[in-house]
Amino acid sequence: MSSDASLSVALVIPVFNRKEMTLRCLRHLDATGVFSWAHVIVVDDGSTDGTADALSAEFPQTEILKG
Q1: Which residues contact residue 2 at a Cβ distance below 8 angstroms, ignoring those fewer than 6 apart?
Q2: 15-52 pLDDT, tens per residue?
Q3: Measuring CA to CA, which residue among 17, 10, 26 is closest to residue 58?
């Protein structure tokens, strides 16, 4: 979790084998400035398409929980 205590909103995004869709979603959130006021958590339910690795590489500020 972020050490920034000023973030009081968390967005939780559950995913399973939706790497490209999730990357598009996070890119949109980034472009609209959501990362500046919300903590983004992706819950990856055992994806086998490299979702977690791709998200970690492009969005290191996103917390990824593996299910």
Answers
A1: 39, 61, 63
A2: 999 999 999 999 999 999 999 999 999 999 999 999 99
A3: 26
Burial 25-60 (b: 16+ CB within 10 A, else e): bbeebbeeeebeeebbbbebeebeeebbebbeeebe
Q: Which long-range contacts (CB under 8 A, 24 or more apart) does 31-37 make?
A: 35/61, 37/7, 37/9
DSSP run (H or E) holding 39: strand 38-44
Is the confidence at residue 53, as pLDDT, over 60? yes
The answer to whether residues 26 and 57 touch, using CB atoms and an 8 Å cutoff, is no
